[in-house]
Design goal:
Shape: globular
Strand content: 15-25%
Mean pLDDT: 80
Strand order of the largest sheet: 1-2-3-5-4
Helix content: 25-40%
Largest sheet: 5 strands, antiparallel
Order of helices and strands: EHHEEHEE
Low-confidence stretches: 1-6
Structural class: alpha+beta
Length: 158
């Protein structure tokens, strides 16, 4: 069901990028709230506030996964790790890409869970359900880690 675990981001024409925004997130779980606020402000500025619910859910899941699974145990105590998770929003002509960078090289793993009442383990399933496509790719160079992204198609008149 969830196969796109190592896909690259679909090609984006740099000339088609109309807006981009990014924020560093602290290695604390309240960073999810900060990511939602940042997403709300950004989508409102780009007049995409009507897409907030779906996009915010996906951003919350991607950031939560990065905080829960991609940071070292002592990340909250290490100042260097304070901004190792970063949220990027990029608007293209008819697409919006949400991307979360983290320092881990581990592959995102979707859990198969038949338990609909489970409180965790369904994050990537939700990302798959609410976005038009998603995937991840490792980073090269000095940054290291990976980027997990989700793509939303926008209406032509947006």
């Amino acid at each position: 069901m969830l196969e796109p675990l190592r896909q690259g981001l679909p090609p984006l024409d740099p000339d088609a990028v109309s807006n981009a925004a990014s924020c560093a997130l602290p290695a604390r779980y309240d960073a999810v709230r900060e990511a939602r606020r940042f997403t709300r402000r950004t989508l409102d500025q780009w007049t995409l506030g009507d897409r907030f619910d779906d996009i915010c859910l996906v951003v919350s899941e991607l950031v939560t996964n990065a905080l829960r699974h991609a940071l070292p145990e002592d990340a909250g105590r290490c100042p260097d790790e304070a901004s190792s998770v970063r949220l990027h929003l990029m608007r293209c002509t008819a697409r919006l890409v949400c991307a979360v960078r983290d320092p881990s090289h581990d592959t995102p793993v979707a859990r198969d869970s038949d338990d609909c009442s489970a409180e965790s383990g369904r994050g990537l399933f939700l990302v798959d359900s609410f976005s038009d496509s998603w995937g991840w790719h490792p980073l090269a160079g000095t940054l290291g880690g990976k980027v997990v992204w989700a793509l939303f198609r926008l209406q032509p008149d947006e």
